[in-house]
Amino acid sequence: MSTSTGSLTELKRPLAERLGAALRWETGLAVVVILIFGIGSAASPDFLTGNNLFNLGLSNGEIAIMTLPMTLIVISGEIDLSVASILGMSSALLGYLWARGWPMPAIFVVIAVVGIAAGAVNGLLVTRLRLPSLAVTIGTLALYRGVATILLGPNTVSNFPTAYTNLGVNAVPFTGNDITYSTLIFIVLAIIFGVVLHATPLGRSIYAMGASQEAAQFAGIRVKRIKTILFMISGFICSLAGVLWTFRLSTAVQNNGLGLELSVVAIVLLAGVSIFGGKGSLIGVVLAVLAFAGIQNALLLTNFNQEATGIVTGGLLLASVFLPTVLGPAVGRWLRRLSHT
C-alpha cells in the first residue's frame, strides 16, 4: 500500500513541475500572441498580409527599441519614465541643428552625446543622491520635454534629405521588403541585450541588484556604477529612437513621442518583468512587443476609435501588475498543494 502511494506521489510531483514550467509567464504570453494574431486575421483579411506586417513593424519599431534598456533598468530595481522625453529632445535637436546647416554625421554625434548625458543625469541623481528613480525621471521627463520646446518652439523642420527619411519608411533591401530598419535594429539589439542579461556576469549582477541591493553591495557588486551605466545606455538608445522617429515622420517637432513612456512601461510589465525588480526575461519582452503591436494593429484595422487606444495601454498596465501579484501566487500555491498530495 505504501509502495503504491509513494509511486503515485512520484508521478504527481513531475506533473506539478511540468505544469509549473508550462504555466510560466512567457509560455502564457506566447499563447496570447498566437490568439491575438489568430483573432486579428479572423477580424480582418489584411492582418497577416506582408504589407500590414511591414506597417506593424514600422509603427512600433521605436517603442520596441526603447523597451530593451527599460527592461534592464526595471530588473535592476529602478524605472526610467523620461525615455519618451529623451526621444522628443533628440528629435528637436536633430531639427534644430539641421535647420542651422549642420552636417548630418555631426548631428548624429551630438545627439548621441546628449542622450548619454541625459541618461547620466538620471543615473547620478538616483545613485549618488539616492533619490527614488520614479521621482527623478518624472522630473527629467518634464525637463527634457521643456528643452525640446525651447529648441524648436512652435516651429517644424521637415526638409531632411530623402536619403535619410527613406531609412524611416523603406524596407531593408536584403529582407524582401518585409523588415523595416527600426525592426532590424530592434532584433539586433534584442539579441545583444538578451546575451548580456542572461549569459554574462553583468546580467547576473543586474538580477542580484533587483532582488536585494544591500545583498548585492555586500557581494561586491558595484551597484551605483552599473545602474548609472544602465541609465546612460537608456539615454543613448532613446536618442537613437528619436532619430528613427524623426526620419519616419520626416518631421521634427517639440512634441514628438509625447506619451510613449506609458507604452514602453506597459510592454515591459506585460513581459513579466517585476516592477519590484529581480525578475524578467528578454524573451518575454519580445513576446510582449508582438502582443502590444498586434493588439494596436488589429484595433486599427477594425476601425476602433484611435482616440481611445489609451484604454489598451491602461488595461495592459493594470493586467500586467494584477496578474503576477494576485493570480501568480494563487497558481503557485495550487501547484505546491498538488505536488504534496
Per DSSP E runs of 2 or more residues, the count of β-strands stands at: 0
Query: Might you state the CATH topology name?
Result: ABC transporter involved in vitamin B12 uptake, BtuC
Approximate strand percentage: under 5%
Number of structural domains: 1
The helix fraction, in percent, is over 70%
Structure in words:
76% of the residues lie in helices and 0% in strands. Mean pLDDT is 87; it is low at 1-13. The two termini are 16 Å apart. The longest helix has 30 residues, at 310-339. The protein has 341 residues and is an all-alpha fold. It is globular. Helix 3 (50-75) crosses helix 9, helix 4 packs antiparallel against helix 5 (104-127) and helix 8 (181-199) crosses helix 9.
In short:
It is built from 14 helices and no strands. Helix content is 76%, strand content 0%.
Please describe the topology of this protein.
Blueprint (H helix, E strand, L loop, with lengths): L1 H21 L2 H19 L6 H26 L7 H17 L4 H24 L5 H20 L9 H8 L11 H19 L1 H11 L1 H6 L4 H27 L10 H11 L11 H20 L8 H30 L2
Helix pairs in contact: 1-14, 2-13, 3-8, 3-9, 3-11, 3-12, 3-13, 4-5, 4-6, 4-11, 5-6, 5-11, 7-11, 8-9, 12-14
List keywords for this structure.
single chain; 341 residues; mainly alpha; ABC transporter involved in vitamin B12 uptake, BtuC; 0% strand; disordered N terminus
